[in-house]
Amino acid sequence: MKVLSVASEVFPLIKTGGLADVAGALPIALKRFGIETKTLMPGYPAVMKVIRDPVVRLQFDDLLGAPATVLEVEYEGLDILVLDAPAYYDRAGGPYLDHTGKDYADNWRRFAALSLAAAEIAAGLMPDWRPDLVHAHDWQAAMTPVYMRYYPTPELPTVLTIHNMAFQGQFSADIFPSLRLPPHAFSTESIEYYGHIGFLKGGLQTAHAITTVSPTYAEEILTNAFGMGLEGVIASRRDVLHGIVNGIDAEVWNPATDPVVHTHYGVTTLKNREENRKSIAEFFRLHDDRAPIFSIISRLTWQKGMDVIAATSDAIVALGGKLAVLGSGDPALEGSLLAAAARHPGRIGVSIGYNEPMSHLMQAGCDAIIIPSRFEPCGLTQLYGLRYGCVPIVARTGGLNDTVIDANHAALAAKVATGIQFSPVTAEGMLQAIRRALHLFADQKVWTQLQKQGMKSDVSWEKSAERYAALYSSLAPKGK
Ligand code: ADP
Ligand code: GLC
Questions:
Q1: With CB atoms counted within 10 Å of each terminal CB, which end of the chain scores lower, N or C?
Q2: Residues lining ligand 1, judged by CB closer than 6 Å?
Q3: Which residue has its alpha carbon closest to ligand 2 atom 7?
Q4: Cα 299 to middle of ligand 1, angstroms
Q5: Among the listed residues 450, 451, 463, the one whose alpha carbon sits nearest the alpha carbon of residue 388
Q6: How far is the CA of 34 from the centre of ligand 2 (A)?
Q7: Nearest CA to ligand 1 atom 14
Q8: Ligand 1 centroid – CA 18 distance (Å)
Q9: What's the confidence (pLDDT) of residue 155?
Q10: Residue 479: per-residue pLDDT
Q11: What pLDDT is attached to residue 80?
């Protein structure tokens, strides 16, 4: 089966979060099921810089107002279609935000163009290759099934994956004429959303199947609290909604071979983590003592509960924990975490920024990773934590709920516990979890058991890729 995947970020070409990891790993995991994926993504400067000898596959003189070229290239096992449209993507800032941290004013056009290019490829415009199915990710690609519905394309099945309901791509109705859709597309059955235009809304209405990245989140988004205004639309499409938990690329994330990890290890050589722990203490200027190092590797935002970390940092230190924080995001949260580090030299270290190698080393050296998210569609850092023996301490929500087994008495006795879950996401909830963690950590036998169970849990793509493959084949026309 041939699949066109459409995503606004793909690891290792460009990454701002988990979407990139998934868009980069899933096509590789699907190969085993005879699924050949080409991934369409924007030609940001970072992408254009690293690709070598691309082949021109398709040209548009006027893709929603600017010329564009589709280039095909092989990159680390991925078959990538780069949408090279300098007017849209050749910019100094990041994929979505300018250098001052503001959304690009024309994000609607940048990502509608990506979606329209995908629909044209689906229609067979690119010589010698047409997909059997199209899989779009998040709001940035969600207009793909919308364009496919209204453009005269032969009917092809479409899947839309929601990675985060908090980002919906909502815009003023004024842009409607520029989207080049027929007038009847501006309706509640399609992209209209309370008089505005919703890209994710349109995708949810028009895709043949909808998936999200964990079974718990698939339930949660049916409620007011998590549906973020789209719970009604989700409920109306419940029969085609699937929750499939993310996996991780077990080659990129392997403590036995990871090139940035100083000392490699496995389940039977956990002691080797000690050297990595020393490097972490050095980097974050933490005392090299026995007090556990709790790590945070995260966007510093309200979703991720980072305000709760800032509010409890003094208490975490008072209880006997140390904190190593790597992240960037909300300037106010960055400020309060840096202030906490200044108050507790040797006990709290904060590094503001995005640092992929350091994120690996932290998983390989820290004792635990705290993920206090208010909502978390799947979450990947707890999966990396499990694989690396960095015990996850997580809020009981979304994919965190589905992937970590809480160390309660029964689970400990049965030797199935892999981490700590807590709820609600409040200062008291957080500190209760920290107290439990410190108590477990004090008994090295119990803690090692937790680490080992985590390392043995299956966080690979294997089972989930099989579920995507089954979904694809249930949608594809017979005989494919
Ligand atoms: P989200 O996509 O909502 O941010 P995920 O847990 O799915 O959350 O994915 C986050 C990804 O980004 C993980 O691969 C994590 O290791 C990485 N990450 C987050 N912040 C940083 C950072 N400051 N430096 C390096 N990697 C980071
Ligand atoms: C989103 C979600 C995160 C998920 C990732 C990949 O960024 O916030 O929970 O793991 O997408 O699906």
A1: C
A2: 17-19, 21, 297-299, 326-328, 354-356, 359, 378-381
A3: 18
A4: 7
A5: 451
A6: 26
A7: 18
A8: 6
A9: 83
A10: 45
A11: 98
From ligand 2's centre to the CA of 151, what distance in Å? Answer: 30
Q: Is 3.40.50.1000 the CATH number for 267-456?
A: no
Tokens representing 463 are 């089972």
Q: Under a CB-based contact definition with an 8 Å cutoff, are residues 436 and 92 in contact? A: no
CA atoms within 13 A on the CB side of 223: 9
In the 8-state DSSP scheme, what is residue 8? S
Identity of the residue numbered 145: P
Residue-level pLDDT at 480: 41
Any idea which ligand is nearest the CA of 351? 1
pLDDT tens sequence across 299-327: 999 999 999 999 999 999 999 999 999 99
Q: What is the mean pLDDT of each run of 10 residues along the chain (480 residues)?
A: 98 97 97 98 98 98 98 98 98 95 97 98 96 98 97 87 98 98 96 97 98 98 97 98 96 96 96 97 97 98 98 98 97 98 98 97 98 98 98 98 98 97 98 98 98 97 97 79
Ligand 1 pocket test target in 8, 21, 303 with most atoms within 8 Å of CB: 21
Both tokens assigned to 201: 């809304």
- Residue identifier of the C-alpha nearest atom 22 of ligand 1: 354
CA distance linking residue 381 with residue 369, whole number of Å: 8
Q: How far is the CA of 21 from the centre of ligand 2 (A)?
A: 9
Q: Which of ligand 2's atoms lies nearest the C-alpha of 303?
A: 8
Give the model's pLDDT for residue 478: 57
CATH 3.40.50.2000 domain extents, the chain: 2-247+462-475, 267-456
Backbone φ and ψ of 143, nearest 5°: -80, -10
* Cα–chain center distance at 323: 24
Distance 26 CA to ligand 1 centre (A): 17
Residue with structure tokens 């997909």? 131
Q: Is 477 helix (H, G, I), strand (E, B) or coil?
A: coil
Q: Ligand 2, residue 161: give the atom nearest the CA.
A: 12
| Ligand with an atom nearest the CA of residue 359 | 1
Give residue-wise pLDDT tens across range 233-272: 999 999 999 999 999 999 999 999 999 998 999 999 999 9
Q: Determine the 3-state secondary structure of 191 from DSSP.
A: coil
**Fold designation for 2-247+462-475:** Rossmann fold (3.40.50)
Alpha helices in 320-460 (DSSP H): 331-343, 356-365, 381-388, 398-403, 409-413, 427-442, 444-456
CA dihedral 175, 177, 182, 186 (to 10 degrees): 40
Give the pLDDT score at 452. Answer: 98
Residue nearest to atom 10 of ligand 2 (CA): 379
